[in-house]
Amino acid sequence: MDVITARACARLDRLLAYAEPFLGEGTICLFLKGRTVNEELTEAAKTWSMTVERRPSVAESSGVILQLGHIRRESGSSATS
Fold it and tell me: Staple 63 to which of 24, 50, 57, 74, CB 3.0 to 4.6 Å?
C-alpha cells in the first residue's frame, strides 16, 4: 500500500491535484487539516470522489487527520485545480 502525506501544504482540492499522478489502487492519503476541514471537504467533493475517515490530532486540539482512500477525479472535472 502506498501512502501520501502532507501537512500545512495547501487546501484539500489542491493537495489531491498534487497527489493525483501518484494515486494507484489502494493508495491512501493522510492529510493533516485544521479548522477549515469541513469547508475543504465540501469544496473537494465538487471535483473528487473518495472515502473519508477522520482521526483527531494529538498535536493540535483543532486539528484532524484525514485518511482518504479510493480517490478519483469525477468525470468531466478539469485536471487544472
Answer: 57
